[in-house]
Amino acid sequence: MDGAVRLSFNLTPSPDWGISLDGQWIGPGFVTLGYAQLLNDILDLNASPYLRLVGGKLLLRGYIGRRTNNLRQTRIATVERWNANASVSWQITDDIGADVQYSRYTMSSDHANDTLRMDNQLNSVTVAPRWRFRAFDADNMLTATLSWQETTDHNRVTGQFGSNSAMMFNVSHSLIFPSQVNVTTSLSLNRTNNYLQKLTMATFNEAITYPLIAQVLRAQGNLGFNLTSAQRTTAQVLLRAALTYTPGNYGSFTLQVMNNTFDVTRQQGNTYSELFASVQYSVGF
């Protein structure tokens, strides 16, 4: 026989700042039929403050949490987890803004055997600016995202296999014309490093949506190019055309044709293509 308790406390003295405190204690023998997957033998403590500045245009958020187990020393080792997050969202002007986020997660144990002892860290940073402007007689939206992530395993035996890092960059430009024609151009780059290999992927995509009959019939087209580099470099070209018909409240019909061409560089073998066509009906209720 065991028990569990959870407490939450929210302090909001002003619309511009506040903090939330949360904690729970679940005994090692506590089991509930209402939620069979509920973890037991844990103690959680969390805090989430926030602050608004510059008339609400600048928002600062934070989070820190700690989880530990082995509350009654019924396990061989105790595992401790820390999770922290800080974010900044700034609407600099009506048309320009940016978001920045940093997060850190650590997990460690005090196992007597160093080969079974855990000591892992995960760090990540994301920067995402955005800019809205008027050009080419259309509304323009330019967004970019740059993120970095690193995982470090300090285990003496498996550390070199579990550590890795990744970087991702993406930029997208969208045009919305008064005729509701949408044109979106995007470019992304992903790079991953681990014990086995270094993998780089670059992707370019061009998409256009053209309304033939307002709210009833629209045409879509996509052109994509993907380049992957590991031991060898391979390339893929994607072409897609689609036609969507929406007869009022009776759902929508979509006819699409796609063509994939693989291994354009021919470093993995011969180039081959795949042609795919489909008809789809969807309705929401």
Question: Secondary structure elements and their pairing?
Answer:
Elements: E1 4-14, E2 17-26, E3 42-53, E4 58-69, E5 79-90, E6 96-109, E7 119-135, E8 138-153, H1 159-162, E9 164-176, E10 182-193, E11 198-213, E12 217-229, E13 233-245, E14 252-262, E15 272-282
Antiparallel strand pairs: 1-2, 2-3, 3-4, 4-5, 5-6, 6-7, 7-8, 8-9, 9-10, 10-11, 11-12, 12-13, 13-14, 14-15
Task: Explain what you see.
The chain has 285 residues and is mainly β. The chain has one helix at residues 159-162, and strands at 4-14, 17-26, 42-53, 58-69, 79-90, 96-109, 119-135, 138-153, 164-176, 182-193, 198-213, 217-229, 233-245, 252-262, 272-282. The protein has a 15-stranded antiparallel beta sheet. The longest helix has 4 residues, at 159-162. It is extended and about 70 Å long.
Low-confidence region ranges: none
Please tell me the overall pLDDT.
91
- Characterize the biggest β-sheet: 15 strands, antiparallel
Apparent shape: extended
Q: In angstroms, what is the radius of gyration?
A: 26 Å
The SS-based structural class is: mainly beta
**What sequence of helices (H) and strands (E) makes up the elements?**
EEEEEEEEHEEEEEEE
Strand order of the largest sheet: 1-2-3-4-5-6-7-8-9-10-11-12-13-14-15
DSSP strand content: over 45%
- Helical stretch tally: 1
What is the tally of beta strands?
15
Distance between the termini: 47 Å
| Percent range of helical residues | under 10%
